[in-house]
Specification:
This protein has 210 residues and is an alpha/beta fold. Helix content is 28%, strand content 12%. It is built from 6 helices and 5 strands. Strand 1 (34-39), helix 1 and strand 2 form a beta-alpha-beta unit.
Length: 210
């Protein structure tokens, strides 16, 4: 008789199997704009995802799982502390996104006080993030902050459609650098991300060339 499978022990902090714990890469950063991570359900148990590490590292960050949110709940999440929510997302208009009900205003950094901002990130694949945007009209109406001319991603463990297509962690780091006008502050977190990526690469089966 076969023994029933046993559940693997999980780390209580990063929620990963103890053998794949990522807590060694946690680097505490006192971010000034708050960060709200809206995580698609398909990303929750994705070992390659970077959102959990990001959430553990940023002192002012919230992570909420879901695809379509109840309007009152989303309003509370976006406007907690009377901060201005800003969506980190590529620029789109109704001309090239006719499935969206609203055309988002462009976020203008000049004159903004970083501590009064809440950076909102959709942790999902490109396709799923578009669906989250479609299902939540409140997100469509947020000022849109788009990253431009980004360096190549270090995210070697997931397939990207372009060299500068970034992980959630990288995108948030570069956005916070711009919002706070401080590049050096987030370099330790990017170095921690390199360690995380290296760890995940180590779990891949060894490729033997013929």
């Amino acid at each position: 008789m076969l023994n029933p499978p046993t559940k693997r022990s999980l780390c209580p902090q990063c929620r990963r199997p103890v053998t794949a714990c990522i807590c060694q890469w946690v680097t505490s950063i006192a971010n000034v704009p708050a960060v709200l991570i809206l995580q698609h359900p398909l990303e929750v148990n994705n070992a390659k995802g970077s959102a959990r590490l990001l959430h553990l590292c940023l002192q002012m960050a919230s992570l909420v799982e879901g695809e379509q949110f109840e309007e009152q709940q989303l309003q509370s999440l976006l406007h907690a502390g009377n901060q201005l929510p800003v969506l980190l997302y590529p620029s789109t208009t109704q001309n090239d996104a006719d499935d969206l009900r609203y055309e988002a205003p462009e976020f203008v950094l000049q004159g903004q006080v970083p501590c009064n901002l809440r950076l909102v990130i959709l942790d999902a694949t490109w396709r799923k993030s578009r669906k989250m945007l479609y299902l939540n009209p409140l997100l469509q109406q947020l000022p849109r902050f788009s990253l431009q001319d980004m360096p190549a991603s270090h995210y070697r463990i997931r397939k990207a459609h372009a060299p500068d297509q970034l992980s959630t962690l990288e995108a948030v780091c570069y956005a916070l650098m711009q919002l706070e006008q401080d590049e050096g502050k987030y370099l330790p977190l990017l170095r921690a991300f390199d360690g995380f990526v290296g760890q995940q690469m180590g779990f891949r089966p060894l490729q033997i060339n013929p």
